[in-house]
Amino acid sequence: MISKLASRTRKKALKKIKPKSPDELSASWIQEDLLYSGKGRALFMILPTIGCSWALSEAGGCTMCSYISDSFLEPVEASEIIEIFDNIISSYEFEEKTAVKIFTSGSFLNPEEFPLEAMEHIISRLGAMENVEEIIFESRPEYINQEAVRRCCELAGDKIVEISIGLETCNEKTRMIKINKGFSNSDFEMAVNTISDLKRDFNVRSKAYILVKPILVSEKRAVEEAVSTAIYAEKVGVDRLSFCPSTVHRGTLMEDLWRNGSYRPPWIWSLIEIINRTREKVSVPAIMDTSGFGTSRGPYNCKKCNRDLKKFIIRANLDQTLVPPYECECRSRWLAELKFSETTASTDIKYSEYS
Ligand code: SF4
Ligand SMILES: [Zn+2]
């Protein structure tokens, strides 16, 4: 059922997109970040590919993700990817310690999405760069096997190679039925174990992405699921956690529900609750992504506190500390929503209509 809906929404969205060249689909930026060795900076790069195989399949992809709309939808030649990557790398100075985060809108380890030749060029070039400490990329669990990980690590020299997996939640019903992710906890555990086994020979790590507030999940459950997922992921053996609060992407099932008043992105208060509870219960580093904060499509509280709280969360990410106490009148509305959220599920309550 969810696959059919996701696939229908996806097909509709793909009909609307204007074709872009691989070069236009690429992007890069640099920002302060937390490395395994402490504060440093991260170079983010988006490299063009055909798109995520899961989203291109009849399964229709995940209900919150629109990356396929930013993909080339045809295979991209290795030589073209290499040229784009080389141009990005030569446009930055690498005087400080840096993590390089490669985003391919899918799985870097799937050769059908990302050509092997391009992968080998990228990892060997980064492996030879003095101030690059970490090479980070994403993959679905089904592409994480001994051979693929070993191949990357051998090229990366002494750099940390971190593989990020979109676990999203430890609740299998939520992952299968609400997110349409298409893999189980045991698939995730196998992938993390493969990475952990290779730690004997290489500097390799794993990270779990945790989605905060998938569709059809109440505000209260969203907080509880995010915290229990962090505890679960640490137990399985991941080295780092990254919470991704939902933002409403165009052309997704999440957007359809949001447009109809049946979905509201998480409150920033919920995210603070998640960070502070996670810090008490989990010892691996945990980051809360702050993109889209304060917009109607992203996490928001009220105009008075959105900006301050975003700053506090960024600080708590870099220092791995708690978010300090803060008061704003909208907090009581959030508390009320938590209390009644099992009844309202994740609907978007328009307070102005009731006052
Ligand atoms: S979240 Fe990941 S696996 Fe799911 S559709 Fe997007 S890119 Fe593919
Ligand atoms: Zn407020």
Automatic annotation (TrEMBL):
Highest taxon above the source species: Archaea
SMART domains registered for this protein in UniProt: Elp3 (SM00729)
GO molecular function, one term: iron-sulfur cluster binding
Domain spans labelled Elp3/MiaA/NifB-like radical SAM core: 42-277
Transmembrane regions listed in the UniProt entry: none
SUPFAM superfamilies: Radical SAM enzymes
InterPro entries for the chain: Elp3/MiaA/NifB-like_rSAM, RaSEA, rSAM_sf
This protein's name: Predicted Fe-S oxidoreductase
